[in-house]
Design a protein that fits this description.
Blueprint: H1 3-29, H2 48-55
Length: 67
């Protein structure tokens, strides 16, 4: 290797090595925390008649009644 390039190569790696080590340590320390719960709990089963009863407003006439 050419002497000037060898010197430059050594200088570059002397500067880059600590910088890369600090960046690696910062990346490991700043990674996000794992979630507290692995998965969301399953919602309870709701019947279709309950959903319709909740969705139907008192001001609207019932669907099965004739207008």
């Amino acid at each position: 290797m050419i002497r000037g390039l060898r010197r430059r190569h050594r200088l570059v790696w002397t500067v880059l090595t600590p910088i890369l080590a600090i960046l690696l340590a910062a990346a490991v320390l700043l990674r996000p925390e794992p979630p507290l719960v692995d998965a969301l709990p399953e919602p309870p089963e709701v019947g279709a008649d309950e959903v319709e009863a909740r969705a139907q407003d008192e001001t609207e006439p019932a669907r099965d009644e004739a207008p």
